[in-house]
Structure formats: structure tokens, C-alpha cells
Amino acid sequence: MKIFSWKLYLSVVVLIAAIIYILPTFKPGIWPNKKINLGLDLQGGMHLALEVESEKAVESTIERMANDLKGVLRSKHLSYQTVERTEGTKISIILEGKENIDGFDKILDKEFKELRILSRSDDKGLLKIKMDLPEKETENIKRLAVEQALETIRNRIDQFGVSEPDIRLQGKDRILIQLPGISDTQRAKDLIGKTALLEFKLLDETHDPETALSEGAPPGTEILYEIKEDPMTKRVMKQSYLVKKGALLTGASLAGASVQIDSQYNEPYVSIDFDNKGAKEFERITEENVKKRLAIVLDNKVYSAPVIQEKIAGGHARITGSFTAEEARDLAIVLRAGALPAPVKILEERTVGPSLGTDSIRKGLFSILIGALLAVILTAIYYKWAGVIADIGLLFNLLLIAASMAAFQATLTLPGIAGVILTIAMAVDSNVVIYERIRDEVALGKTPRAAVDAGFERATLTILDANVTTLLAALVLFQFGTGPIKGFAVTLSIGVISSVFIVLTITRVIFDYFIYNRKITKLSI
Questions:
Q1: What is the DSSP string of 280-311?
Q2: How far apart are the C-alpha atoms of 201 and 248, rounded to whole Å?
Q3: What does R_g of the chain's alpha carbons equal in angstroms?
Q4: Residues 226, 239 contacting (CB under 8 angstroms)
Q5: How far is CA 215 from CA 207, 283, 404, in A?
Q6: Alpha-carbon span 486 to 290, nearest angstrom
Q7: 3-class SS of residue 198
Q8: How far apart are CA 25 and CA 29, in angstroms?
Q9: Which domains does the chain possess?
Q10: For residue 119, how far is the Cα from the chain centroid?
Q11: Nearest to 473 by CA among 514, 426, 524
Q12: Within 10 A of 250 (CB to CB), how many other CB atoms are there?
């Protein structure tokens, strides 16, 4: 009776917990507010295949190194004719004068050792040199760009609030994304694909933007646009700005971004905060450029270009524009998550409608019902009263699987439903092993109590051996499999653990109840 007691108490506790965790799935809002998440194939949503243009990350690195090289040359008071990125990923340099050339060589050996010299000609004091990065270094930059892009996109989606997204690498430079339950697909694509490179640049106020448009921008400048849409007429207006190419500060120095409401105009804007280093740099920039216009540029689009009235301390700034609340929120999300190291382009896009998901759920549940019903009927016919006990355990097994998925916030997919059906078959198989052992003991003339004890004792190791092997296989599938395979592995793993507990604990409790309390003298098996 002692064994019967602890198994009974454990079974009651587990079943009560299962009921508590399964209720929010059918009636949302009930504590503990956890429910079974449905996958893309059941709930509907969006599937995207993205390609990271990792070559652009190499170009950005080369561009940055060229600018750094210019800065070092200026700081050393060395003059140069040309330092620029050419042919995408190469740096072309022209210097004149022995002093400048000697100084350049020292800088190159000391601070830019990673650059590889492709060609060099030094003719009568005129140095022409072309450099790039070795293949190993460029491959490393590309790999890091893809990994950073994956992490940045994951951070954006997490802040966007998608339940159970599936985001993973495919190959060297592709990212697969599944977003269950997404209805506003365009907004999601804009959020994911925005590069979000934030830059602060001074305006060139010595030249006319209109003249630059017709005759070409002066060296060291570029033409960028501020695009506004009239909310009433929906007319799009473009204003051109002549902006100096070099960024004084970038979004890499951001510590945070949030949506605020302008008290004067009652319009949302994005408030940004710099880290300690960025705050000091922003204070220096504003102090040195009072009465000049500073353009706030995001992905080569000017959001605003205010006049710096005074030194701005504290590390705070704001990005204004004709934002809706959603646009301001999404902009804050991408700024917090950080800029993509390289642009991404959409290679494949699929949208699964909710009607297809509903049809999948209906057919999936129907398949579970048919499978369970056949198992229940055949078990009851073949094993009689003992078969009914197995059927009760089977229903408890389905309850525990559903409750466990809700408790762990697991995602149910169509392959996951297949895992549930397989679990039903395995649970029946475990009962078959026990019942055949009990039949053998009854045939030897043992009492119901002795037959049940011997049957469960001898079958336990066989059941554990078979199910542990299956569980290990499911864990391997979960570790190394992709989305659909993982969905199958999740329900199979939960089902295996649940069926072993049901068969060896709850089913045994029911048998013990009839043997000890009802004192049956013959087993109907």
C-alpha cells in the first residue's frame, strides 16, 4: 500500500497541474497565462528567405579604413593627392614627395599591417599604390557580417513581439525566417530589411544644392533627400540637401532609443541616447559647429537637419519626421537592435493564410482523433477490462502532452501532430508489453495481485529501454534538425516521457485500486 500511496499522490498532482496548464489554451487570460503556440503551417504567417550581401560589408570596411588612413595622414601633417576606395574592395593612394612617402610607409607598417599591397610604383617622388585585404580576412568579415545580421534581425523580431519565430542560417550567407501569426507582412519586411545605419553629417552650406543637382556635387559631398508625405493629400515631397560625406558620429554610439510625444505638436518622435563616449563626442561636435546645420541621416535618407544653436551636453538627441506611432516604434526598434552590417535582399517570400492554417488544424486534429479512437477500440476489444484501463491512460497521455507543450511554450506544427500520433502508438505498445507479461503470469496460475506485480516488474526494463532509445533519437533530431523536424522531435520527446509516466504510474495506480480496494479475484485481460 505504501507504493500505491505515493504513486497515487504523484498522479493526482501531475493531473491537476496538467489541467491548470491546458486551460489557458482554450480560455485565454486564465493563470498561468501560457498556451500552446501554433506554428506557421497551422497559424498562418510569413516565410522569408534572405541573402546577406556580405560583399557590401567588405566594401564598408575598406571605405572605413580609407577614411582612417586619411585621418592618420592629416594628423601626421602628411599631404596626399588621393586616398579612395576603388574597384569595390581596393584602396588607391597617390602621394608626392619623399617626406610624405616615408611617413606613409611608417604609418602603413605600424597601423595598417592587415592591408595587402597589390601594386606599387615609385617614380621620381610620385608614389602610386593599390592595396586590399587578404582573402582570409575578407572571408572572416563576410562570416561575421552574416552572423551579426542574424543576431540583429533576431533582436528586432523579438522586440517586435512575434511569438515563437524561427530564425536560422542556411548555407554561408542566407537567413531563413518564419513568423507565425504575422498579418502586416509589409511592416515586418520593412522592419527586418532596414539597414538602419544612423549617421550625423554636416551640411555643405557654401554651395547651392540645386546647382549641385545640375552640375554635380563638389568633391567630398553628396546629395541626400528628406522625403515627407502629407497625411491629408498623401502627396510626397522631396527636399534635397548637400551633405558632407564624412560622418561625424554614427549609430554605433547609441545606448538606447524610445518613442516620445512632442508636447507642442502632439506628434511622435524618436528620442535617442548616446553611450558615454558618444555623448562626449556629440557634445564636442555641437560645440565646434554652433550655427551650422547637422543632418540626421538614416540609410542615406535625411530625417531632419536642424541648426545647432548651442553646445548639447547630456548625450540626448531626437529624430523627428512625419511619423505615425507604428513608424516611430519600428524606428526605435531597429535603432536599439543596431544597424545591419550589410544590406539584405529577399530571395523568397511566402505568406500562409489563416484559412490554410485552420484547415491544417482541423485535419491534424481529425487524424489524432481517428488514430486515438482506433487505438481505444482495438485495445478495449482485445484486452477487455484491462484495455479500458489502457484507454484511460491514453487520454491522460494526450492531456499531459498538451499541458507540457503549453507549460514550456512549445510550438505545435503539422510534423508535431505526427509526433503525437506516433506517441499514441508507442503508448499502446508499452501497454501490450505489460499485458502480455501479465497474461503469462495468469496462465501460470498466479493470483491477480501476483500477476500484476510480476507483469509490471518484468516489463519495466523493456519499456524503459525502448523509450530511452527513442528519446535519444528525438533529442538528436531536435539538436540538428531544421524547423519541421524540430517540431516533430518536440512532441515526440514530450510524448515519450509522458507515456512512460502514464504506463508505469497512473495505469499501475488504477490496477492497484481494483486489486487492493475492490479485491477482484479474476483479471479481465
A1: HHHHHHHHHTTTSBEEEEETTEEEE--B--S-
A2: 6
A3: 34
A4: yes
A5: 11, 35, 69
A6: 58
A7: strand
A8: 9
A9: 2-42+353-517 (1.20.1640.10), 55-133 (3.10.28), 198-321 (3.30.1360.200)
A10: 44
A11: 426
A12: 15
From first to last of the 525 residues of the chain, give the pLDDT tens digit. Answer: 444 578 888 999 999 999 999 999 888 878 888 888 777 777 778 889 999 999 999 998 998 888 889 889 988 889 999 998 898 899 999 998 888 999 999 999 888 989 999 999 988 789 999 999 999 999 999 999 999 999 999 888 888 877 668 888 888 899 989 888 787 888 888 888 888 888 999 999 998 888 888 888 898 899 999 887 776 777 788 889 999 988 888 888 888 899 999 888 788 989 999 999 889 999 999 999 999 999 999 888 998 888 998 999 888 888 887 788 888 888 888 888 888 888 999 998 888 766 555 677 778 778 878 878 888 898 899 999 999 999 999 999 999 999 999 998 887 888 888 888 888 888 888 999 999 999 999 999 899 999 999 999 999 999 999 899 999 999 998 888 766 788 889 899 999 999 999 999 999 999 988 888 888 888 888
Contacts of 445 by beta carbon, 8 Å cutoff, 6+ apart: none
Residue 45: CB atoms within 10 A of its CB come to: 27
DSSP 356-394: HHHHHHHHHHHHHHHHHHHHHHHHHHHHHHHHHHHHHHH
> Can you tell me which residue has the cell 528586432?
156
**Residue that the C-alpha cell 577614411 belongs to:** 67
CB 431 within 8 A of CB 503: yes
